[in-house]
């Protein structure tokens, strides 16, 4: 590893971020600067362009725009309100019931849409005002909404798990999807426990119990939305179709659901839906292209091998090495978006953990769960900013109720890290 090249890569990247250059451009420009030190100008530009194009030439990546489109249709299709009503029937009667409803609805909507930002926006838009009317503080409501929205990135279908599959060299998407269920549910249960204690201490009101007839009709109304999870994941696990084919089926299903059954998306709305999908997809694909370019540069400079040797030289204790990796990823998640973080750091850390015998599927879940915490932290926490914007409150006011929720998310991360069967039990049962 040439220390000059590595210094240029790190310094130029941090400098570009500090002066406000978008992260995708920062990654691409810093990678190009580093290559220019070792390789003449024209080969550097050509090589980087080829690596970016090659990174995007993947059948698995076709799933991302389809799932984004499905999420956009869900966001406008009345699904959020129906999931909230269904969640209220299930947990609304418990102490802190509306906080539980918020968490459960975010988990369901995030799982169906695959987007934490969409979950925070859609569920928060309905729940935060409703919680305030019932006596809940707005900062607490926002904190619950922000943290629970991230569970949709663990519970499948999840675009970030598809990106991890690409970065890891082809880990089974089906195995990753199934592995995400129990960790996602674990985070949800931990968040509910803290929300329940907080609501009990603050003496927040308890909701009314729903009658059997009401519960039946709320379930019936939400059932078409919930069925998408069984269709998409069941088809992938059953080998009926691939993750990419499942994403296309998800678009067709949500289109029928939003326009034909719920009738809340009109033909005139489709151009806006498609435009938003194209915008989001363009951002994600640019991040993937430049991040894979940086990954190649780091591989060219032997950075993954040197980091692996360093970590294994620090300690041969698996507990210590995994703790160091988790601390690094927690720090990275504070300053970097999930997509480039997964693409850049997977090639660095995956060889380390596989040398220790860790399953790549398990590590993928740990990495994504770790980086989910960064979505709730400034300065680049997209879910934090969306959640505060929806709640019409400031980050300063939200930090206090966020802290205990952060702590239990980190506790869940440590449990998932050191007890592999939380992630691997279900894939093993399905033979994945």
Would you mind describing this structure in some detail?
There is one protein chain. The protein is mainly alpha-helical and 432 residues long. It has one domain (58-429). It is built from 21 helices and no strands. The chain has helices spanning 3-18, 23-38, 41-56, 63-76, 79-91, 97-113, 116-133, 138-149, 159-167, 173-179, 181-202, 212-237, 243-261, 270-300, 303-314, 318-335, 338-355, 360-374, 382-391, 395-418, 421-429. Helix 6 (97-113) packs antiparallel against helix 7 (116-133) and helix 7 packs antiparallel against helix 8. The two termini are 37 Å apart. The model has no long low-confidence stretch (mean pLDDT 83).
Q: What is the strand content?
A: under 5%
In the predicted model, the low-confidence regions spanning at least 5 consecutive residues are none
Number of helices: 21
What is the element string, with H for helices and E for strands? HHHHHHHHHHHHHHHHHHHHH
Task: Tally the structural domains.
Answer: 1
> So what's the overall shape?
globular
Give a concise summary.
The protein has 432 residues and is an all-alpha fold.
């Amino acid at each position: 590893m040439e220390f000059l090249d590595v210094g240029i890569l790190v310094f130029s990247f941090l400098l570009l971020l500090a002066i406000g250059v978008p992260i995708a451009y920062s990654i691409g420009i810093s990678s190009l600067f580093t290559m220019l030190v070792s390789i003449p100008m024209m080969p550097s530009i050509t090589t980087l362009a080829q690596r970016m194009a090659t990174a995007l030439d993947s059948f698995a990546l076709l799933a991302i725009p389809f799932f984004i489109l499905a999420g956009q249709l869900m966001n406008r299709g009345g699904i959020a309100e129906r999931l909230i009503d269904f969640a209220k029937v299930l947990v609304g009667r418990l102490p802190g019931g509306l906080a539980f409803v918020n968490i459960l609805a975010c988990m369901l909507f995030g799982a169906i849409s695959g987007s934490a930002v969409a979950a925070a926006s859609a569920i928060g838009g309905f729940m935060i005002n409703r919680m305030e009317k019932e006596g809940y503080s707005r900062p607490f409501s926002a904190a619950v909404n922000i943290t629970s929205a991230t569970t949709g990135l663990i519970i499948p279908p999840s675009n970030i798990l598809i990106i991890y599959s690409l970065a890891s060299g082809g880990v089974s998407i089906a195995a990753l999807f199934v592995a995400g269920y129990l960790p996602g549910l674990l985070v949800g249960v931990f968040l509910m426990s803290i929300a329940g204690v907080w609501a009990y201490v603050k003496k927040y009101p308890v909701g009314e119990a729903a009658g059997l007839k009401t519960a039946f009709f709320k379930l019936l109304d939400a059932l078409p939305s919930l069925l998408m999870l069984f269709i998409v994941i069941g088809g992938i696990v059953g080998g009926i179709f691939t993750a990419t084919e499942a994403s296309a089926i998800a678009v067709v299903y949500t289109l029928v659901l939003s326009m034909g059954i719920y009738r809340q998306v009109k033909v005139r709305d489709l151009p806006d839906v498609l435009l938003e999908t194209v915008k989001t997809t363009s951002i994600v694909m640019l991040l993937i292209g430049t991040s894979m370019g940086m990954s190649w540069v780091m591989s060219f400079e032997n950075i993954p091998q040197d980091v692996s040797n360093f970590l294994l030289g620090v300690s041969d204790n698996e507990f210590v090495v995994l703790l160091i990796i988790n601390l690094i990823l927690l720090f990275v998640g504070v300053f970097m978006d999930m997509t480039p973080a997964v693409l850049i750091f997977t090639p660095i850390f995956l060889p380390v953990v596989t040398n220790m015998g860790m399953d790549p599927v398990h590590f993928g879940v740990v990495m994504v769960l770790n980086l989910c915490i960064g979505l709730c932290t400034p300065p680049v926490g997209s879910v934090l900013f969306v959640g505060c914007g929806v709640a019409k409150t400031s980050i300063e006011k939200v930090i206090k109720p966020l802290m205990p929720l952060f702590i239990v998310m980190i506790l869940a991360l440590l449990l998932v890290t050191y007890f592999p069967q939380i992630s691997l039990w279900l894939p093993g049962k399905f033979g994945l």
